[in-house]
């Protein structure tokens, strides 16, 4: 099992940058594919970014279209951490951001993930 705790959310202004962190506990963290998702009020949870673990092509990333070019997902297996850096934040980025873990591929859909954190709120003011 994997336990996940997100941090780094808050209130920011449009155009700002933000780095979200996800601390994982449990065994074999390095083998898990890790993803970030977000859910805005009244909307479904949507994929943001994914990074493969050692079971896939370790370190291979994938991004939602709206996040390409202004976000970066990374991981530090020695520290059991996953990060999501977002630049040029927009009010439409306002959502609760979730970290998740799975052994499935391609790991770009919420239903593939077994383990979820509690989420961290990001609010972008205009």
How would you sum up this structure, described in words?
By secondary structure, the protein is an all-beta fold. The chain is built from no helices and 11 strands. Strands 2, 4, 5, 6, 9, 10 and 11 form a 7-stranded mixed sheet that branches. The radius of gyration is 13 Å and the shape is globular. The mean pLDDT is 95.
Compile the SSE list and pairings.
Elements (H helix, E strand, L loop, with lengths): L1 E6 L2 E4 L4 E9 L6 E7 L6 E6 L9 E3 L7 E6 L4 E6 L8 E8 L12 E2 L3 E6 L1
Parallel strand pairs: 2-11
Antiparallel strand pairs: 1-3, 3-8, 4-5, 4-9, 5-6, 7-8, 9-10, 9-11
Choose one word for the global shape. Answer: globular
Number of helical elements: 0
How far apart the termini lie comes to: 40 Å
Main sheet summary? 7 strands, mixed
Mean pLDDT over all positions: 95
Percent range of helical residues: under 10%
Would you list the SSEs in sequence order as H and E?
EEEEEEEEEEE
Total number of beta strands: 11
């Amino acid at each position: 099992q994997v336990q996940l705790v997100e941090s780094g959310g808050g209130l920011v202004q449009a155009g700002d940058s933000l780095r979200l962190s996800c601390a994982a506990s449990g065994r074999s963290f390095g083998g898990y594919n890790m993803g970030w998702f977000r859910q805005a009020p009244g909307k479904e949870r949507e994929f943001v970014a994914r990074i493969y673990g050692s079971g896939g092509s370790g370190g291979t990333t994938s991004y939602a279209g709206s996040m390409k070019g202004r976000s970066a997902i990374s991981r530090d297996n020695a520290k059991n951490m996953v990060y999501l850096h977002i630049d040029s934040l927009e009010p439409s980025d306002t959502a609760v951001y979730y970290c998740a873990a799975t052994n499935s591929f391609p790991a770009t859909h919420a239903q593939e993930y077994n383990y979820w954190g509690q989420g961290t709120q990001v609010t972008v003011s205009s």
